[in-house]
Amino acid sequence: MSADSGIYILVTKDTHKKTNPHTWTNTFGEGVIAYRVSHAKAIDNLVWYEKKQPYNVGYFLHSTFGHSEPVYSLEEAHEIAYNLEKHIGYTEYGVCTIRRLEYAFPW
């Protein structure tokens, strides 16, 4: 039986940057590359939503990655992902990166 799970790093270009636990700074159109890490199953649903229900992509990303704090370096995202993988144990797909720079994550 397939586990259909993995640790995923979502890469987006956000319009705001979290500068401390209580403050988000507007990047004024420049955008900032943000990374969010999550353990998820059936992540391929993202492609289905993009093709069939693009109006639900934001909801899907928020429900999958909304609990994840944004980090602003790929190295830090990888460290979080591999620590999460050690904690969870086996995943079918391991650690994978999903690049969606066309999306600004809903904060």
Top keywords for this entry?
107 residues, 3 helices, 30% helix, single chain, alpha+beta
Distance between the termini: 36 Å
Shape: globular
**Domain tally:** 1
Please indicate the percent range of residues in DSSP E strands (runs of 2 or more).
25-35%
Order of helices and strands: EEEEHHHE
**Treating each run of at least 4 consecutive H or I residues as one helix, how many helices?**
3
Radius of gyration: 14 Å
Largest sheet: 3 strands, mixed
Structural class based on helices, strands and sheet pairing: alpha+beta
Strand order of the largest sheet: 4-1-5
Estimate the mean pLDDT confidence: 92
Low-confidence stretches: none
Number of strands: 5
- Helical fraction equals 25-40%
Task: Summarize the SSE layout with pairings.
Elements: E1 5-14, E2 16-20, E3 23-26, E4 32-41, H1 45-52, H2 57-65, H3 74-88, E5 95-99
Parallel strand pairs: 1-5
Antiparallel strand pairs: 1-4, 2-3
Structure in words:
The chain is an alpha+beta fold and 107 residues long. The protein has one domain. The chain contains three helices and five strands. The strands form two sheets. It has a three-stranded mixed β-sheet with strand order 4-1-5, covered by helices on one side. Strands 2-3 form a two-stranded antiparallel sheet. The N and C termini lie far apart (36 Å). The relative contact order is 0.33. The mean pLDDT is 92.
